[in-house]
Write a structure and sequence with these properties.
371 residues; mainly alpha; globular
Length: 371
């Protein structure tokens, strides 16, 4: 009895009438909070006794911030991450070698494109350590080596506590830029000692930090907002913002676009030349091309004093730029085919099976099979 084969009707494909527009990342509420804090400092700057109170609170907030950094970082995870030492050295070279070299090359833009004050801020931007949170997030979106991104960002933050002040003392010079050798002592007192204390007390406070992770995250961001308000209030009172015109800010933005594009290109193709696989190259690109606003703002407030508002403006602008550009790049990288990704089975016609009569002997070895 013959049975009629019935096949279910296949759904008709959707017409491709128009190309899908790229989805833009939503604006980070924290960026809006930063801009609102700058506007508040411009309209209602702290002065007199209020400035002293804000300055003391900002100093305490910076110390608390780096204490929490030290308490959260697991020493065991950091030691385990040393296994990828080539990757971490590559990220550190991008952060503390290639970036500063590009910053020094931008010295030729003074005074035609950048003012000396904005250039000092741009050079300080090139000395700041890499980010942790956004590097991990974008590496995960792009299907890269997330564990390497975690360790690379952590090592960069640790190295930046020492490397950033030393490089600032070497490249930014003395009092003309608001930096003095005494700033190194303030760095040790406000940044390094709280960080070490956090590491030493980690075994007793790690559980509390884990249970209250959300609340402490708000403390982190609130501390940075307080630092921003204090720095920009000092700048408004000192009148430093009268030195910057909209044209200069537009030129600064264009310079930072070129800087970010150069670092994204160097980190990606440089890692390829060094023999890293795709997953490691993704981690190197996102960890080696970004700068940490959370680490840079407290350092700038300690290093530059009243000039900190101009010093952190390039860093804040670069932070916003890198979030948007790297979000788009991570989405594009997520669509790249992975080398070890199994191919989808192709719909090919099955090969006909040759049927032999029962009396025909079967071949005993592969060499006797018909080709």
């Amino acid at each position: 009895m013959n049975r009629r084969r019935t096949s279910s009707p296949s759904p008709s494909p959707r017409p491709r009438s128009s190309r899908r527009m790229p989805s833009w990342p939503r604006v980070d509420p924290y960026i809006l909070a930063l801009l609102g804090t700058v506007a508040l400092a411009a309209l209602l700057p702290a002065s007199g006794t209020a400035a002293d109170v804000a300055g003391g609170a900002s100093t305490g907030a910076v110390a608390l911030l780096f204490f929490l950094y030290g308490a959260r970082l697991s020493t065991r995870e950091a030691l385990d991450g040393l296994k990828s030492w080539r990757l971490h050295l590559t990220v550190l070279a991008c952060t503390f070698l290639v970036f500063p070299l590009l910053g020094l090359a931008a010295r030729g833009l003074v005074p035609f494109v950048l003012t000396p004050e904005l250039y000092s801020g741009l050079l300080f931007l090139c000395l700041v350590p890499s980010t942790i949170q956004s590097s991990i997030a974008y590496t995960s979106i792009a299907r890269g080596n997330v564990a390497a991104a975690i360790c690379a960002g952590s090592f960069s933050s640790i190295a930046g506590i020492v490397a950033t002040p030393l490089l600032a003392a070497l490249l930014l010079g003395g009092g003309a830029n608001g930096f003095s050798p005494d700033s190194l002592l303030r760095i040790v007192a406000q940044l390094l000692l709280p960080f070490v204390a956090g590491q030493l007390l980690r075994r007793w406070v790690a559980g509390f930090l884990t249970r209250h992770r959300t609340l402490l995250g708000r403390v982190d961001r609130g501390s940075i907002l307080l630092v921003v308000y204090t720095a920009f209030s000092q700048g408004m009172v000192a009148g430093v913002w009268h030195q910057v015109t909209p044209g200069r800010l537009g030129a600064l933005f264009a310079v930072e676009v070129v800087l970010l594009a150069a670092m994204l290109t160097i980190s990606w193709y440089g890692a390829r030349r060094l023999g890293f696989d795709r997953a490691d190259r993704v981690a190197i690109q996102f960890a080696g091309s970004k700068k940490s606003l959370a680490a840079g703002l407290p350092m700038a407030s300690v290093l530059f004093g009243a000039q900190a508002s101009l010093a952190v403006m390039p860093l804040m602008l670069f932070h916003m730029l890198q979030l948007v550009v790297c979000a788009l790049l991570a989405k594009r990288r997520s669509r790249d085919p992975l080398p070890d990704e199994p191919h989808e089975p192709q719909s090919v016609e099955p090969r006909p099976v040759e049927r032999r009569p029962m009396s025909e002997p079967r071949p005993t070895s592969p060499a006797s099979e018909p080709r």
